[in-house]
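Convert to structure. Protein one:
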Amino acid sequence: MSSRSQTTSIPASGPIARVEFLKSAGGCQGAATVLVVDDEPKLLEVRRLMLEALGYVALVAECGEKALEIMRTRMVDAVILDYLMPGMDGEATARGIRALNLATPIILSTACLSVPDRVLRLVTAFVPKGMTPSCLIEVLKEELQRAHGGTTQYSGD
């Protein structure tokens, strides 16, 4: 029986219960670790809950400095990064990540309408914040598969 079919009979309701159920059903084995970097606390929480409900290990950072600290101490499979943040912005954060690990996929997710080409060259994908969460997840899956040689182990399924 796949973990997808097991999620149809969740014993309790709500995203936290679903995450716990997925963990107990083995849905998080081999899950990709995704770092979400954004200065908006509510968006960080929503994205964390969404990623965990889908079986990912989600880490959050409210600023670029904290993101780099996490990147230095944890194994991170992908980063979802905001561009406009106070202090260390998305460009400086992406440059810092690239200095640590060139292979980490970075998905830029921003409401900024004009992102310089020099920033787009640092990231592997761009998803505007106005797009649906499913669009962001599809891009995340594609980037993880590309980074891991086309395997689906890290797809969050």
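Protein two, convert as well:
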Amino acid sequence: MTHLANRQISRIMGIALRTELLLAAVLAFFVACNSGRATWPVQHSEKASVPSKPGPRVRPLADRKFERTANRLIRGRYLVNGIAECFACHGPSDFKRLGWPPARGKEGSGYPNFTSSGEPGPASPNITPDRETGVGNWTDDMLARAIREGVGHDGHLLDPTVMPYEFYRAMSDEDLASIIVYLRSIPPIRNPLPASKPSDHIVAPFAIPIYAAGSLTGRFHPS
């Protein structure tokens, strides 16, 4: 009986000791906080400091040229008109035909005020080889970076709700090269479009190295 009583007394004393240590730690914490508030200098300024906005993580353009081959033209035509459906956005649709296909003779010519919800918004660019209003002056890597990384030819970030590059990120290098080779082959269409204002609320994607076999002059090597 005495042994059991001693164990209970020891247990109670242990709990009391832990409680005392906890209270001492809490008291020390509050003392330190109050002391810090009293000693740290407080600076007042007429204008609140605004943290600097980090720049976009955009890889530099590489000097690459995708070789034009018959296989890439065939593959690119299939991807652009099929799976990727590039002309469904980059040009008007013919609503009088079954399935609303791209309007004939205007494939890739761009479309003003396009958004995924159909509301007014940024223009869908002209992706034909026209040098004045299309991508005729873009390099192959400018197109590659825009398609798979969401970065425009001038370095601004593309809106992923309009340009679905997040889905194209998984595209193989060879499919990417085939799409660009095919886009170079379609007829140039002059179609001036209103300038789109880039959004300031887009998160930059990570750069994706491109290694299309036997196609590069100035291969990009990731650091």
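Residues 45 and 155 are 35 Å apart (CA to CA). Residues 70-185 form a domain with the Cytochrome Bc1 Complex; Chain D, domain 2 fold (CATH 1.10.760).
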